[in-house]
Amino acid sequence: MTxxxxxxxxxxxxxxxxxxxxxxxIGHYPEFRxxxxxxxxxxxxxxxxxxxIRGPSGTIYSLVFVGRxxxxxxxxLEVYALVDALEPLSEEDIDTDLWAFLRxxxxxxxxxxxxxxxxxxxxxxxxPFLSR
Amino acid sequence: MKLDAATTPVPPGPFVHEEWPYxxxxxxxxxxxxxxxxxxxxxxxxxxHGNPAWGFLYRKFVKxxxxxxxxxxxxxxxxxxxxxxxxREQAHSLDGHIANLTGLxxxxxxxxATMVCHxxxxxxxxxxxxxxxxxxxxxxxxxxWAWQLPPAEFHKRIFPWRMMHAPLVAPYLLGRYNALAGRxxxxxxxxxxxxxxxxxxxxxSILPDSGSRLLTWTWPRWIPLDDTARGLERFxxxxxxxxxxxxxxxxxxGREDEVFDQRTFAKRFKxxxxxxxxxxxxxxxxxxxxxxxxxxxxxxxxxxxxxxxxQP
Lengths: 132, 312
Hints:
The structure holds two protein chains of two kinds.
Chain A: E1 5-7, E2 15-23, H1 30-39, H2 42-45, E3 51-54, E4 60-66, E5 76-84, H3 91-109, H4 115-124
Antiparallel strand pairs in A: 1-3, 2-5, 3-4, 4-5
Helix pairs in contact in A: 1-3
Chain B: E1 25-29, E2 32-39, E3 44-48, H1 62-67, E4 71-75, H2 94-107, E5 113-118, H3 121-131, E6 136-142, H4 153-156, H5 158-164, H6 169-176, H7 180-187, H8 192-198, H9 200-205, H10 214-221, H11 232-244, E7 249-254, H12 265-272, E8 277-282, H13 288-307
Parallel strand pairs in B: 3-4, 3-5, 5-6, 6-7, 7-8
Antiparallel strand pairs in B: 1-2, 2-4
């Protein structure tokens, strides 16, 4: 599984944003919030910009950071696949891209959070693409 | 019915299963639609499930208890089973779930109840019992906890517990793949083949879509791991009030339980409630009702008969 790449804002012409993953509590473990703050300069950008990444399949995703009054920013995170406007998603690509995104995130957080533990958790719960 | 809940579309509709022939009933509590069954007549026994189960977990309990002249009420937590499933994590809190249960049992004007508490049915059911003592006569406690810290070693470890419910990992693993209701429950019973053949699809199919599975990762996030955790004050209150309780209590634990192992958790309940009977050990991991449901139902009947003076 190849790396996730952070990219600049792509052209959205002819594309639609398809919600593929939603997290209401990105700071449940604060180091997860800190990772996104650092990686996407959220302390200066705030809500003004989404983040963009390219997954191993080539699909581009926008990361929409969600704020909630009274809570540290960001409080939530929504992941959207930017796909051809009238075409259905490739579920297989989304699944493997999101897993690569999670691995990239865990690797970036570091410390006690290890990619090997994420992979072991995926294998324990028998994610089908990990046994292919 | 055999379903791969991760990939198979499940049409919405009534739940049909030969072991669950009970009339679905609903009440509005705190703005949510709550499902429950209400069978038999007599002093009520309230059977409370936890994560990621629903009333079906108690399918082996209903007939033995009603046949013994008891009324059996089995609610589905808001977020599970046939109850309404909020789609935002902020909809869930421990206090909110205690209030949901209280709302239901007050509407039914339940009195002289025995609260049977398992997993998150523990903090919620005990929360109801301790705040409504005039409505409760006895407790049955199984594979749960009711204090602040420390949690079990299992809950402190990154692999698999904290990784499973980590931000973004959880909505992927437990949301897209229904990992807790599927593989997670499977790993937490003793007779796994029997569980897969007879029950697993009933737990998976009741949570058919990612959006319906939210509580499966919200509850793990409510287990206090340090002194910054949510709900600490409520757990402190639970422990303090439980220590004062003189309610007749029966502890039932699975010998093979590695989530809330009996040497730690049943022992702690016994220290809090020295008058409690047990722990009576049965074959079972965390979901001991799956391996020993009928046996536990007999133990509950015998326990209540002893309270009623029908048995020595």
